[in-house]
Design a protein that fits this description.
two-stranded antiparallel sheet; binds zinc ion; five-stranded antiparallel beta sheet; Peptide Deformylase; 33% helix; single chain; alpha+beta
């Protein structure tokens, strides 16, 4: 299976991804591992910090994080709890939207629950840049791109100005 990076403009990026079923996962485990290896290859090739399955055209709840050299994380079927904290603005980009960087506000502290490739459950607290990467990739699984926040922001200004 050859995988390629899906770019902005392809409607698949706005699809909501489906949970990975354990039974199917066991049946297709080698297939899933193969996908993950190829996704990591793509992620490292583009020097990215995260990649979601939907960015290669697969609408399944899977993403990878490559924040620091020592921290390569495979995340399946995540759920996120936002802890009570402030928003922080930071410059963000996306491999599917090349050469665009914008200031995006996100929560600084999160709890994420997910399973890994061996179906072990993890519940971890993340903060700072790692939390930002996780939130960005999690959005991909729900068909949300970071530019969508800007459009909402701009349209709200438009409504305020014209009301
Ligand atoms: Zn992205």
């Amino acid at each position: 299976m050859i995988i390629t990076l899906i770019k902005y403009g392809d409607p698949i990026l706005h699809n909501k991804c489906k949970k990975i079923n354990k039974q199917n996962n066991l049946k297709d485990k080698n297939n899933l591992k193969d996908i993950i290896i190829k996704m990591f290859y793509l992620l490292l090739k583009h020097k990215g910090v995260g990649l979601a399955a939907t960015q290669i055209g697969l609408t399944i709840r899977l993403f990878l994080v490559n924040c620091f050299d020592s921290r390569k994380i495979i995340i399946l079927n995540p759920s996120i709890v936002i802890t009570h904290c402030f928003d922080k603005e930071y410059t963000e980009g996306c491999l599917s939207i090349p050469k665009v960087f914008e200031q995006i506000k996100r929560k600084e502290n999160i709890f994420i629950e997910y399973v890994d490739i061996n179906w072990y459950k993890h519940k971890v607290r993340s903060k700072g840049f790692l939390a930002r990467v996780i939130l960005h990739e999690f959005d991909h699984l729900n068909g949300i791109l970071f530019l969508d926040y800007l459009y909402k922001f701009h349209s709200s200004i438009f409504i305020t100005k014209n009301s």
